[in-house]
Amino acid sequence: MISxxxxxxxxxxxxxxxxxxxxxxxxxxxxxxVSSACLAxxxxxxVAVDVSADKVAMVNAGRSPIVEESIDELIAAAVATGRxxxxxxVAAAIRGNLCQGDGxxxxxxxxxxxxxxxxxxxxxxxxxxTEAQKQAxxxxxxxxxxxxxxxxxxxxxxxxxxxxxEQSRAHxxxxxPPTIDGRPRFDMGAEHSADKPALRRxxxxxxxxxxxxxxxxxxxMTEMVAELIGPDVKFHHCKIxxxxxxxxxxxxxxxxxxxxxHTNDDIVTALLFLDDIDETNGALTVVPGSHxxxxxxxxxxxxxxxxxxxxxxxxxxxxxxxxxxxxxAVCLMHTKxxxxxxxxxxxxxxGLYICVYTAADAIPMARNPMPSTHEGxxxxxxxxxxxxxxxxxxxxxxxxxxxxxxxxQGQESAKAAE
Length: 418
Ligand SMILES: O=C(O)CCC(=O)C(=O)O
Known about the structure:
Layout (H helix, E strand, L loop, with lengths): L8 H9 L4 E5 L3 H12 L3 E5 L3 H8 L10 H10 L3 E4 L2 H6 L9 E5 L7 H7 L7 H10 L1 E4 L5 H18 L17 E3 L10 E5 L6 H8 L2 H10 L3 E11 L7 E5 L11 E7 L10 E3 L12 E2 L2 E2 L5 H9 L2 E2 L7 E5 L3 E4 L8 E10 L18 E3 L24 H4 L10
Parallel strand pairs: 1-2, 1-4, 2-3
Antiparallel strand pairs: 5-15, 6-7, 7-8, 8-17, 8-18, 9-16, 10-15, 10-17, 11-14, 11-16, 12-13
Helix pairs in contact: 2-4, 8-9
């Protein structure tokens, strides 16, 4: 219950001094709605921000989006006096241009935060990545940043995966709505069974899932990529690599550019952690600085193996470091960075949502190994009028025919009984 708002005399002077504080509160859940109502009834000017247009409309109509004693009256009174209003416009709320007067400003968030720190920065027109982070990316060829999608986005992505893993139990071989080049959407390792699913790949989930499409198009991850290779950024393809517990999937060392050569290498592979990743569950490992060259061939003679030669791999592994982080973190990786990963030896799954973005003026020099209905979509800025050429000689990859590159790298898919 909310206590009646009659501040004690001792607090009255302090309240008068603060009565022109302008406050933006993010989220009108229990904490945000109650705080907004109480602070407005104390005389402050409050702008409540929420992603839900319905909640915002309720507050502006003088009604509470939550159930709590007295809150409807407080909100109705605060809205009637003009001290409380609600909006979905994050930027305006942060910049303060919804408030009147020049009093001090406070920005507060509902708990759990309705908006990530990156979203608040974006809303205020600030960069998501710091200069030091950008320099680290160009120096090392990779950067791990936490909270690259909101908590809500992450939950939606994980819920989709759980559903797809369940579906895979009913299949003995790669299945699903085909990709636009006619290959199965879902691929499982040879060890897959109904009891112990080994779903290892979902090709272009953004083609079939609104949650994956939204995370690809409009998340802090997208923004970070734009700050590295933007302002004009184009989507190339995406995939999910899963290593469920007991699965044998590993990723042999390679550089992505050898699969997806373009006229220039302003290309970022963003690997979003769908699970907490540590030393137990097959973390991505990378060789810092390897994006500066050389490019390693993925051919053994005339055969495209999709991986570097064994002795090269040994040398790269000796210089490699792992990328750990909580679910929701992203590893932003330069397209020429050498990387791979071992099998999951632990008891928790490891999922990565992998989105490939290019500068708009990087033009493919080979067919997309995983064509998407969204290929070429401009996710930030505008399309390029000119192609930018920085590459002089590139080895052209072979087009995959099977459900995923794991087969190219020598790891068979599950097979239905004859
Ligand atoms: O799943 C991983 O650990 C790395 C993914 C990767 O290198 C790829 O799919 O190209």
